[in-house]
Design goal:
Layout lengths: L6 E5 L4 H12 L4 E6 L2 H12 L4 E6 L5 H15 L2 E6 L13 H29 L2 E6 L3 H4 L5 H21 L4 E6 L10 H5 L3 H9 L5 H14 L3 E2 L4 H11 L1 H8 L4
Parallel strand pairs: 1-2, 1-4, 2-3, 4-5, 5-6, 6-7
Helix pairs in contact: 1-2, 1-9, 3-4, 4-6, 10-11
Organism: Actinokineospora fastidiosa
Family: Belongs to the short-chain dehydrogenases/reductases (SDR) family.
InterPro entries: NAD(P)-bd_dom_sf, Sc_DH/Rdtase_CS, SDR_fam
Length: 261
């Protein structure tokens, strides 16, 4: 496994996919797991779950949209645990509004869904280069490949996250660094399920396209994708077919989805 014996850092680890990634990393033989979340209590609960599996774990209550805080976190982790072998840059937010969402919400989406990945990459990749390589996975979304009706800030920033992952993969391959984009469709988390229950267009669109997976299923797929060195990691196989269909005929894709966007 790509993470066996390595220090693994997971952001957005307080719940949902991030918590599942931390636990899956422990099961994959990680030497230590660093659970990071703006919700310090959630991060500590995840770290405790990792320790129950016999793996060293620490929690950090950090806002990953704060570049200085991210730099300090990475420096501290390296000082205490040595090289960081794998990173799951997983923090994300949804908005649930269209074009006219308040600028404050557009800014929050950019800050967490894009710039937080930039901050973490800037902080961790130089050390990975010195260490001879590593793995960096960005949790984007199937929305980053297919779009998403009903949530313009989310759809736009998740597409940017995929673009960032692709750029990093190309730029850092020569340094032995593997970069991946994790693009799940529906996952049973606090981000999606309230939207489904409320009948929100974004939640319904996701639920209609494929099954809603458990976070543990997505985490298992993510760790396997990391080990295989895949760029696009797709827990829902149907996303690959939809993405190919969209790429083959963008005009038809827009026409088909125009009434819901």
């Amino acid at each position: 496994m790509a993470i066996a014996g390595k220090t693994v850092l997971v952001t957005g680890a307080g719940a949902g996919i991030g918590a599942a990634l931390a636990v899956e990393a422990a099961g994959g033989g990680a030497a230590a797991v660093v659970a990071v979340d703006i919700d310090a209590a959630g991060a500590e609960a995840t770290a405790a779950a990792v320790r129950e599996r016999g793996v060293a774990a620490v929690a950090a209550g950090v806002d990953v949209a704060d570049a200085a805080a991210v730099r300090a976190l990475v420096a501290e982790v390296r000082a205490e645990h040595g090289p960081i072998g794998a990173v799951f840059s997983n923090a994300g937010v949804a908005v649930g509004l269209g074009l006219h969402a308040p600028m404050s919400l557009w800014e929050k989406a950019w800050a967490v869904n894009v710039r937080a990945h930039v901050h973490l990459a800037q902080a961790v990749l130089p050390g990975m280069i010195r260490d001879g390589g590593g793995h960096f996975m960005i949790t984007a979304s199937a929305a980053g490949l297919l779009g998403l009706p009903g949530d313009a800030p989310y759809a736009v920033t998740k597409q940017a996250a995929v673009g960032l992952a692709e750029w990093l993969a190309c730029a850092y391959a020569r340094h032995g660094i593997k970069v991946s984009a994790l693009c799940p469709l529906g996952v049973r988390t606090g981000l999606l399920m309230p939207a489904v229950a409320a009948g929100h267009p974004a939640g319904l669109a996701v639920a209609e396209l494929g099954p809603i997976l458990e976070p543990a299923e997505v985490a298992a797929c993510a760790v396997a994708g990391l080990a295989d060195g895949r760029f696009l990691v797709l827990p829902h196989p149907e996303v690959a077919e939809l993405y190919a269909k969209k790429a083959a005929d963008p005009d038809a894709w827009i026409h088909t989805h125009a009434s819901t966007r």
